[in-house]
Every structure is written in structure tokens, then in C-alpha cells.
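Handout, section B. The chain below has 759 residues.
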Amino acid sequence: MMTLIVNLLITAALTSSYVDPFIGTAGMGHTFPGACVPFGAIQLSPDTDTIPHNVGGKYQKRVYDHCAGYRYEDPTIVGFSHRHLSGTGHSDLGDILLMPVPTPRGGDPALSPGTADRPEKGYRSRYTHETESASPGYYAVDLTDYGIRAELTATARVGVHRYSFPEGDPGTVVLDLGHGIYNYDGKVRWTTLRVENDTLLTGFRLTDGWSRTNYTYFAISFSKPIRRYGSEDRKQPAYKGFWRRFDTRHDFPDMAGADLAAWFSFEGEGPLTVKVSISAVDAAGAVRNLRAEGDGTFDEIAREARRKWTEELSRFRSEGTEAQLTMFYTSLYHTMINPSVYMDVDGQYRGIDGNIHRAEGFTNYTVFSLWDTYRAEHPLLGLFHPDRNADMIRSMVEHWKQNAVGMLPVWSLMGSEGWCMSGYHAVPVLADAIVKGTCPNPEEALEAMVATSKVAVYEGLGDYMDKGYVPYDKSTTAASTTLEYAYDDWTVAAAARKLGRAEIAQEYERRALNYRNVFDPATGYARPRYGDGSFKDPFSIDQTFGEGFIEGNSRNFSFHVPQDVPGLIEVMGGEKVFLERLEALFQSDLDPVYYADNEDIEKECLIGGYVHGNEPSHHVPYLFAWTGKPWLTQYWVREIMNRMYRSGIDGLGGNDDCGQMSAWYIFSALGFYPVCPGTDRYILGAPYLPRILVTLPNGKTLEIRAPGVSDRNRYVKDFRINGIPVERLYVTQDEVLAGGVWEFVMTDRPARRRTLEKP
């Protein structure tokens, strides 16, 4: 399950910007190694195989390895497609695949991809990692079988390719509109392709996948004129109408099909530059995007992409070893891939109602992996990219208005609702922004939050409102879903309190106590209940599959009450029991039998029984702050960072999930973490690096100093803000944004006598 993640060696020390990255870290998290700009609609990257999601309705397990399109172990490249998801455990996209091939001396080039063991049977090519190069906004590789150098860069809406062919070959390009990630027979519903003139193509592709109705219009420009071309619909329709009177396979400018592939051969010497723009609105929108962003040479566009990454990444200036800085800036890079822009340059976009809308005064975004990203990714964006996060919130509210069932997004993808995972976690994203004063139109946002929390047809929500829990006979993730709903409800209450809406706050404060309804009084662990009120029996607190929890078990999810940790301690039986269970979670290894049937958990995700690789437990190591051993947060956070994040192949211990794993790392490296989004507090840990200087959005700077910090000196002896001692285990949003100098005095022993105010 190990797939490549781009590991950026961006050693942005305090006196420099950064140096070129290398391809390195991998894990269960599947991240593409290609070219993009921060939060851009284009993620242009190589795809290394075409494993179908299912064959005849039977799931193909190997497809999980190819969530990002690229898998480091694969020996061939199929081609270069324009949209990819970053670090998700499920997938889609891989839209508009191009592959340069030698110009055939006679006949047509192959229009099937071939296979990894017989690439010569198709258009794919072998490659080696020695010829790969990756840096922010740029990717390059040699296609070994063809002697072709492929280079990629991007703008927000345009992918740019440069293909250098062997001397004497003006070049040929295959365009495969039937290719996709998590593909299967019937996923591509229809495609069209028009030759507008000898350097411009336009077209359309409609797919049905995780994004149920994904419209992708495109425009493609070539730097050299087309000499001849052809196409084939590899899935011939039963009825062709009177198109049959034409030879649509050769030099015919109006092509269409459910599995269409085409090829284009060119005239002239030198490299071929190809620019591909996309739009969800129409082909005219794709052309406008191309004209607005596609001007300039390949090198000019690549420099601009690099400049944009330099501007963002250089806001953090850090000191540390090369491996530490590699991981820090790689993680920072990953937090700025998704969510991604989803509108044309004129503001038009396709809503989840299928209609065309115009974003007035904001940028519309998509790819909201909210079960993951509400935890740290959105708090990170709200802190360091508040304007972008505000636009993302506007996008979520518009999604709510367009949604037929009246909900904020659950997993929003390319103009569709994917309904993946559990809870309604757009709610804490909005609540967090309301509480911190960065939410646009907070009253409207609160209305959307309340409406979302009352959609009875959503997973177990009607029963949750009636019974105070989700019954196990209605949902296989009943216990964890109940805990998630209760937390989400608490954030509604927090937002309502902030806005002076006492009646709403009181209603949702009551609902937030529903977490107690799934705790078994006999054991103090969370346990699913049936509709008749009885607890599931038999039941295992260790089993991660089939016991009422999603991507975790009762040992982990029983700590999923970040909104009421003192209440949780009481429910568990007091601080002594709470602390014993918390320590045991990290210290006692989980037997593989308990995750053998869980595709989302493997050994690399675990520290003891603590599941870090998928996100429900990300706040757990910070819960020691509520106990008499707060220094254990400092110990275990550093252990997690050392074990789960490494600068090499197989280096990330789990799914990055659109930046969540990486956002956890950035916060933890800074020395604080948003345990409970919906409050203005961050729980203190300890810095990972000796010095980080952050330029804040308000123009102030925050300097975090921890001289001598190391694996040995991981404990905090003293903490001061601008020279003033801080005698508590949290900091506030205002304190972060005030900037200044934070000084951590580090030591090699726990500061057991240090009495601090608990959160």
C-alpha cells in the first residue's frame, strides 16, 4: 500500500529561501508528484498504471495503491493527467491524459495503454527514478522506451507540458479521454473532441465516479501545427446514426465516444509545448481560462509557479537538520494542494445542483475532505490563510444552498457531493471561523449549520435526534458517528454563543451531551447500542472492523470528546482510569488480528494501539494536558513525529487526506495544536525545531525559540511570551496573531513540579 509522496527538500533556513526538492516520502497516503500551484485546479502528474476499481462489479484491491495515479514501485508511466487527489484513501479524476510517443513511420500509433509487463503493446513507456526531477511547480522525467524528455508545470487552471523528442522527430501525442483513476467499465459516460484549427482542440468529458457527475471541458493548444491526426472509440456504440458516412478515424475534426482516444502528429523542429486548460462550465470557459493563464513560454510559466510556492513557503523560516526541514516543508507544501479552485477566470462554476453559478466576490473551491480536514487543516488555513479559508467557507455555504437535501458539504468533489465518511464536519469549520472572528456572513453560516444538523434522512440522524444516539442496527459506524455528531453539535452551540443566540446554544449544548449515551457504564468505554437501547454484545474494544467505529476502535474513539474532556474523564471513571487508559493506548501494541480486515489501518499507522495514520485520534496525544502528567504530550508528540513522518520512501505513516496529516505535523512542530476546533484555544506541546520565524497574515512575525530541543531534550521546563512566564497549558488565537517571541526552555527530564493551569 505504499505510494509515492513528493518529499520537498525545501531547506528554508532563516537566511535563505529554499533549495530544490527530491522525490522521497511515501506511505499509505497517496500523493501525486507532479506540478501545481497553491490551491490550484490543476494537479498535473504522471499516472503509472490503469488498475480498474472493479471488474464486473468485483472490487480490485490493487486499485487502492493507485489512489494518486502515481505509485513509486511501478516500472512504467501511462501518461500525464491533469487532476489528482492528494493523499486520499479513495479516489477519482485522472482527467485528460496525454502521452508523447514517437511519430510512426507508417500507420497509426497505438491507442491502448498496454500493460506494465508488456508496455510495447501500447503507448506507455518505461522510466527510471534517476531521470525524475520534482520541485514546487515542476516535474520532469525521461520516457526510456522513446528517448523523450517530458516536463510539466502549471497555473491555477492550465497544465503545461514540454516534450523534447529525439532529433528528426517532430513528435506525436496520444490523448486518451477514456483514462481515469479508479476507473471501471462505464465510468466515462461520454466525451467529445473538436479540432478547431491546426493548433487548438476543444472537448468535453463526463464521468460518473466518486464525483457522480463530473463535467470536464477542456481546451488544448499546441506550439506546433498539427500535420495529421486520428481517433478511435474503443467502445463502439450499437447505433452510430448517419455519422457512419464519414471516416471519423482519420483527419475528421469532430470526434466523440464513450471510450475515445486520439493521436496528433506535428510539423516543425524543436520541443513541443502543450497547454491544457479545464472548465466545469463549457468549452468557451476553458478557452477563456487558456487565454487568461496560458500566455508565456514553458520556462516563464514554470518560474511563475515556483515564485508562487516560494512566496507561500518562505513565510516560514526554520532551523534544523536537513531531514527535519525536508519533512517540515514537505508537510507545509501538502497543506496547500487541497481544497482547490473550482471556477473559471470569470467566476462561473457548476454547482452541485448541476446549474451554472457565478461566484460574486469570492473564489469558489472544491475537494472538501471534511472528516479529515476540520481537525487541523482548516484551523491551519484559518490561522495562516484566513482569506482563502473564508472563501472556502463561502463555497461551503453555497453548496448548502444548492444541495437538494439542504446540507453543508460532507465530502465535496468537482461539483458533486460524495457523502464519504461520517458526521457533518463542515459545521466545526464554520464554527471555528465564527468563534475566531474570520467567518464571512456568520449569521448565514449559523443557519446553514443548524439546517445541516437536522436533516433526518442523513445517516442515523433522525434516530440520533429522537434517541440521543445512532443505533447500530441502522449504521455500522453507530458509536463513532454518535460521538462525531455530539462534537459537531457542541460547535453549533459555541458559534451560537459567540453570536448571542442563547436559545440555539442551549439546544445544542444539550445535544452535545449525547456522547454519554454510547458509553457503557460497566466499562467506561464507548460501545454501540441497538435501537432497543441494548449495547452490542459480544463486543471488542480492540477490533477496528465491524464494531461500530470508522477507521479506529473503541480504545481510540472513546477519547473522541474534545469538547468536554473533564466530562469524559468523569464518564471513564476518574482521572486515574483516564490516564491509565491514555498511557496504555500508546504503550500496548495492537494485535494485527484486530486490523487484518481494515483497509485503512496497517502497522505503519500505529504507535502501540494509537491510530495516527487515519485521523480520528489526532487530538489524543494532547489530552495529557488535562491530567497530572502533561509532559507525556511532549514525549508522545515527538515520538509520533519521528516515527510517522520520515524523509524517505515509505516515510508517511498513513493517508495524508488532503493535508490533514501534514497540518497536524506543522502545528505540532510549532508547539501547539487545535484539540477542539470551535474554541480559540490551542493546547501546548513542545516545538520540534530550535527556531521558526513565521510571517503572519496581519504582517506581524511570530518567532518560536526552543534552543537545544532534541529527542533527548523534548520536555518544556519553562515557557515565556515576550519574556512573560506563561503558567498554563494553552495559548489563544489572539496570542498567536499578536506575534512576538515565544521562548521554550527545554530539558531532558519531565518538569514534574511545574504546576500549570489546565485547559
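Note. Residues 1-29 have pLDDT under 50 and may be disordered. Compare this with the example in section A.
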